[in-house]
Each structure stands twice: as structure tokens, then as C-alpha cells.
Specification:
The complex is a heterotrimer of chains A (229), B (396) and C (117).
Chain A (H helix, E strand, L loop, with lengths): L4 H7 L12 E4 L5 E6 L5 H8 L10 H16 L6 E8 L2 E10 L4 E9 L6 H16 L4 E4 L4 H11 L2 E6 L6 E6 H11 L8 H9 L6 H9 L5
Helix pairs in contact in A: 2-3, 4-6
Chain B lengths: L3 E8 L10 H15 L9 E5 L3 H5 L4 H9 L5 E5 L5 H14 L6 E8 L5 H9 L14 H16 L3 H15 L13 H6 L3 H4 L2 E3 L2 E2 L8 E10 H4 L7 E10 L14 H14 L8 E3 L5 H10 L8 H6 L16 H5 L3 H17 L13 E8 L4 E9 L3
Parallel strand pairs in B: 2-3, 2-4, 9-10
Antiparallel strand pairs in B: 1-7, 1-8, 4-7, 5-6, 8-11, 10-11
Helix pairs in contact in B: 1-3, 4-15, 7-12
Chain C lengths: L8 E4 L5 E2 L14 E4 L5 E9 L11 E8 L4 E6 L12 E12 L2 E10 L1
Parallel strand pairs in C: 6-8
Antiparallel strand pairs in C: 1-2, 1-3, 4-5, 4-7, 5-6, 7-8
Amino acid sequence: MPIDLELESVLRPPEVPMVPYPPKVVTLANGKQMVVREITREDVPRVLEAVRPITTYERDYYDIVASRVYAELLGWYRWRIVNEFVLIAQIDGMLVGLVNSRMLNAKTGMSLHTLTTDRGLRIGSHMFAAKMEHHIEYLKQEEVLIVAESPIGFRRWMIEYGLEPTNIPHELGGALSFRLSKELYFATKDRLVVGDRPVPKELLDKAMEDIIVVDEKTVAQKICGVKGR
Amino acid sequence: MRPVAIVGAGMIPFGRRDDDNLMDMLAYASLNALDDAGLGDKGVNAVYVANMGAGMLNHQMSVASALVDRLSLQPAAAESIENGPASGGSAIKNGLLAVASGYYDLVLVVGGEKMRDVSGWRATDFVASMTHPTAEYIYGITLPGMAGMFTRLYMQKYGVTREHLVQVAIKNQEMGALNPYAHVESRITHEGIVDSWHSRVNNPPVADPLRLYDVCPVSDGAAAVILAPLDLAKQFKKTPIVIAGFGQATDTHSLQEREDPTDLKAVTLAAQQAFEMAKMKPSDIHVAELHDAFTILEIAESEHVGFFKKGEGAKALEQGKTKFGGQIPINVSGGLKARGHPVGATGVAQVVDIVWQLRHELPKDRQVQNAVNGLTVNFGGFGNNVLSFVLRRGEK
Amino acid sequence: MKKKIEIVAFKCKKCGKLHFPFHDRCLACKSREFDQVAPQGNAKLITFSQIFNLPWGFDNRFLFVGVAEFENGVKAMGQIAANAPEELKLGMTLKPTWDVVRVISGENVYGLKFEPM
């Protein structure tokens, strides 16, 4: 596709430089080591492969979340979203979850989504925590604005973190945002944010080598539950 | 009273079953049991359906009539039985009495629950509605909360520690990982839920001192058995499993009215009655399914049924006596902790698991060698309505 | 304004057994006649739990719920004002109050709230 570079330079939103998220490793309840790391634009097509089938699962609003994540990742890949970051979770290279978010401005973060393809191991909790950690501790922001699309999300984030309600419409559909302030983050960090750094070399190498996408049937079962008589 | 045997047993995998409604699950489990008994296109005299919450959770009543229609079992007699999380045990007992009395020859008992139609907090509220409406429920007490209060007292009185609870959780999830019918497929490690500092997120408190991995999951599922008089059981293809004894007892609604709140009197009485009827004692049992909705309950029940003296259940656990391959393997299926706890299904599922054990038809990694006698405990409310069954392998 | 504690226990007229909540017949002797007994004085903590994952209708992250025994032997469940389990000890004295414990269908429901002393 020929690109009109002149016009493209107008369409591409200007970005502020963002410090990278230092990778960490979390030991899950099953003893497995989960690497949490930031991906680059080049990784997006592979991650989209994992997100695509989930856009059709109605369970727990997975379809809305996955569709929006798909669009947000594509937007980032094609330079149509400003200051977005994406963290992924991998076990033995296998992609098991992702979070994305962006900087609204230097002070405020706009939390986008949390999507996991394995359930029952608190991966979503770990990943949401990593996203908040990045906003507050590495990007040095003062606050993050958050909404939930599903009742599970609401319960997890709003109640576990004790978020403050605001009158600020969120980018995701205009619902009123809840706020995680820097103070609230540090007050809850001890309970909700874990992980070891640096990630041992062989673990990180394995994660960086390839993002393995789980087969569609397995993901469908993890998300929509068991079938069979 | 004539002796009664289980001539068919069936289950469907427990878990989140988004594609099925309650009637689907009850029908599938029933068909599995009918097929297992070789009754594919035949009828039964009566149907007992164990279900606790279709009215609240699924907005459906009279599920037994609906099931008869699904299975075209008309004009069989049919009723639904609601007795909290002990509904399954109650339905089996009622089916058993109907056959034992000589009134019916062939009875289908099926238990099922569709809990994942509602959010977790609705499901928690649904289960909490069993508590006393004005003396307990209004305070926000939950069943895990009741178990937390019980655990605190049990720890204080008998020296049970967090480590003991962890051992129950690891043991049962280890076995559940081998069970294709179990809701929870994942093993858990000591490092992941205790040792690592990451465990504060992996295994947070749910009802202190109980943590996430001390509590059974909220599940969908169904299980069924076919009952027949023992003298007709030979006509069926599988080895009959005799219901050698049963017991049922109740206790006060509120925990605080029990003289010793750590004493689960209804468990003791139900098991005693079952053993007496079966002319057996606890040491005759080769495999048991105990109602471990919370890890503490497996330890407490193992004492109350008489496997171990009061206060020695935790020690027995430590010594490996209750694990697969131990002196008295408890919850080889993974128990409620791993198989899951669709409340109306549980009492039936426990019996189905013991039937499979006593028929010796499980894979090697879960089959208790030469098991002949088995025990179940189905615990309703917080121990205010308990059923127990002693099963015995019959002659083919 | 401080509210009066409204629960009442039931003492069997025949054998003296104390009940809470109400039973139509005495747990011990099956008699049907009771004297109403108000809980007296402070209460001793028998057991408790810090409960997370609360049912529908609660927006808080956790609640402390416990059972306590009043000075005249009445035992009852109630919420406890605490922030961490370390603040509570079995056997400690609690001061009972009567306060909103839950909102059901938009209506305030009152019940026991214990405060550690």
C-alpha cells in the first residue's frame, strides 16, 4: 500500500517518549513461572492471532473486551493510538494474558484492557497490577483512570483496590472513570503487586524467543468452560 | 426392608458449562446412568431430582417434572428434593427408601446445579440464604465465613495449622488433576500458595483463616444413579454396589447454639447410623468421599466419622494416611475442592465416585486397590443436615 | 443518637435453657413457654472471621463477623469493627452497639455491631 508520507505525518499522533517496563517473573499457584514483559510494535501481529478468536466469545464480556483490544492493538501497530503500552504474560513462552493502557498526558494514565486466556490462576490480577505498577512507578504518573466492562472486572479492580469514583468520562465508551491515585497504589501495593526482577536469563530468553499462541480449542474451553457428556 | 443396589451410575464433567442449562445437565447425567445400567430405552418407576437453587439461580421450578418430560419417562413418579448442599444425599436416601420398601423397583436419582448463570456475588448470596435470616444472614455472613469461624476454633482446640489445610488442598487438587470430571484441572504447589511471597496474590484470604485454595469452586454439574432391589441387580450388566447403610442427622441452625461449636454432631450421628445399618466399623472402609467444601472439613469429618480420634485427623493427614495409597484414601476424586461443588449434584457425585471405585473400573492412578467398602459424607448447611452412606461391592 | 439493642433471647420457663434465636419448643425439654431476656452488658468474643468476597449488596472489600457471648450468657452473631485479624483475640471483651448492618431492598437493616474495647 503506497503511503502518502506527508499526509501520514499528519495522521500519526505525536508521542511522548515512554520508559520501558522492566520485565518481572511471578510464581503462580501451580508453581509455574510467568514472565511479564512489555512488547514492541513488531510483536503485535502475533498477539492479534491470539486475540482474534476471543472476539466471538460472549462469556463474561470477553467479546467486547477482545474486540476492543484487537482494535487498540491494531491502532497502536498502525500508529493511530498515542502513547499505548502492552504488557504480556507468558508461561514457557506461551501467551496467557495481556494488558494494554496508554498515557493520556504526563500526569494521567488511561487504563484500557486486561485479557487472559487461562483462568483460575489469578493471572488477571497479576497483570492488572503490573499495568498499574508501570503507570505509577515507571512512567511516574499521578493517577490512572479505570472502568470495568464486566462485573468480574468491577469486583476485582474497584473493590480490591478501593478505587475512587470520579465524574470523568472514560475513553472506553464514556462510562464514569474510577481513579487509582499514586497514594492509593502505594497503599495497596504490598497486597496486590508482586514479582521478581531481574528475570533469570534463560526464562527471559525463552519468553523473547517466540510468543506461542494457544490453540483455539483450548482457549475456548478455558474461557467458555467444559463441554461433553 | 429389602437390600438395595446401585445398578447404574453416571456423571458429566463439572466446571463452567456455558452451553448447557440445568435441564441439559440433568438429562445428560441421567442418560449416562441409564446407559450404564443398560436401560437405554426402558423406563423407571420413579425419579428423584436433587437441586438446591433452580428457583433462585435459573428461574425454574418443578425440575423433576421437566426432567421426566425431557427423558420421556412418563408416567414415572417424580419429585424434586431441596435440602441445601445435602440435597444429593437426601434424594438418594428417598430413592433408597422407596425401593427398600418394595414400592418401586427401579428409581433414577439425579442431582444437578447450574450455579454459573449468576455472578459470583449472587452465588455467594444464594448459598448464604441457608443461614438464619435474622440472626445470621443480615450480617453478611457467608458459608466460607461460617467455615472461617469454625476453623479458628478448631485450630485453637486441636492444634490444626495452616500447613494442614494447605496439605488437604494440595492433595485434593493433585487427585482432581487426574479426574476428567473435575472442575479444577490444575495442581497447586506449596511454593505457589505458601512459600513464595507471590502467594499473597495467588492465595489471598477469603474468610480468615481460610484462603482462596481452602475453598471449593462454584461449579455447574450433574450426577445420577439408578437404584434397584439387590435381587434384581443380577439382571444388570455391571457389578451391583449395595447401599449397605445410610444415616442422616440434623443439628441447630445457628452455630452459636451448639454447646461445642467444633463438634459436628450431625456428622458423627449420620456416620454411626450408616455403620450400624451396614454392620461395619470405620476400619472396614477402604475409600471415602468426605464433604470438603472447605479444607478444614475434610480433617474434621475424618475424625467425626471415626477414622481417627478427635484431634488426630491432622496428624493422620501429615502421615499420609488419607492420601491415595494411604491407610484410608479420602477424596480420591479430588473432592469438592477439585471436582467442584454444584450444590445439588454433590451428594450424588460422591456416591457415583465410590461406585466407580468399588466396581474397580477407574484408571490405575486413581483406583484404590481391592476396594470393597466405601463411605460418603454429604454435609448440608454448616453441618445442620448431614447424610452418610456406606456402600459395599456386591456379587456379580 | 445511640440506638437500643433490639435482639431478645428466650429463656425456657421450665428448664432455664437460654435460646437465641427463637425456637417454638425448648431445645432441651421441648417446653413452649419462654421468658424474654435482653442481652446484658459487654460481650466476650467466641470466634470470628474476616470475610472477603462478600455477597450481593455489599460494596466493601471485607467484613469482620463473629459470635460473642454477653454477660448474661446470650450468644449472638454480629459484625465487628476491626481492620485486621491481629486486632482481635478470642476471649477479648467487645462493646455491643445497634447499627445498620446491611441494606436490603433499599431499606436499612439494623443489627449487632461489636467494638473491641
